[in-house]
């Protein structure tokens, strides 16, 4: 266990090795779990650091089903975090960020800002086209990541994995 560096954060001690139960949702009209490189990459990176996959699903890019699924997972006390991949751009079908931000009780604008800042060194100005976001829904931490495998790898390694345990502890109160 390590002591949180901020005495005012309210999380108390956070077990640096605590396994979280994470739901991974891929938004795609064409992918199946077998050929979903980005969703599978998220699973691989989570499991590499000891987290558990509570559920792994692929669904179409539709706001209603995503909203219903996220709310169902948030209602499940055993789920610590939800990570979506896909639907974070500006194309007409890209609605993940809109749905997630509608559901957020507390947003983390710094998450998207930091992701885009890190991404600039990899893909240049195209990083501005991502609306990746994160925050808390109820007592569950939620992340909406882009759909490309490169962007998922960047987001997971630089933005999600370094904070997910601490963010989950804060979300739980």
UniProtKB/TrEMBL annotation:
Name all MoaB/Mog domain ranges.
Answer: 23-166
**Keyword Magnesium among UniProt keywords:** no
Family matches, as Pfam families: MoCF_biosynth
User: Which keywords does this chain's UniProt record carry?
Assistant: Molybdenum cofactor biosynthesis
| Presence of the UniProt keyword Cytoplasm in the record | no
Q: Which InterPro entries match?
A: MoaB (IPR012245), MoaB/Mog-like_dom_sf (IPR036425), MoaB/Mog_dom (IPR001453), MoCF_biosynth_CS (IPR008284)
Q: Indicate the family of this protein.
A: Belongs to the MoaB/Mog family.
Q: What is the designated name of this protein? A: Molybdenum cofactor biosynthesis protein B
The organism's taxonomic lineage, starting at the top: Bacteria, Pseudomonadati, Planctomycetota, Planctomycetia, Pirellulales
């Amino acid at each position: 266990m390590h002591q949180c560096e901020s005495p005012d954060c309210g999380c108390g001690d956070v077990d640096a090795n605590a396994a979280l139960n994470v739901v991974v949702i891929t938004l795609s009209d064409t992918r199946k779990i077998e050929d979903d490189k980005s969703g599978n990459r998220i699973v691989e990176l989570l499991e590499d650091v000891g987290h558990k996959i509570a559920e792994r699903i692929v669904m179409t890019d539709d706001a209603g089903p995503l909203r219903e699924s996220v709310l169902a997972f948030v209602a499940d006390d055993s789920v610590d975090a939800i990570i979506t991949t896909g639907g974070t751009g500006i194309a007409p079908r890209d609605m993940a960020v809109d749905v997630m931000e509608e559901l957020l009780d507390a947003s983390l604008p710094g998450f998207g800002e930091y992701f885009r800042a890190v991404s600039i060194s990899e893909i240049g100005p195209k990083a501005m086209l991502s609306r990746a976001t994160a925050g808390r829904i109820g007592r569950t931490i939620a992340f909406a990541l882009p759909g490309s495998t490169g962007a998922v790898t960047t987001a997971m390694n630089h933005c999600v994995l370094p904070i997910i345990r601490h963010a989950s502890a804060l979300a739980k109160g």
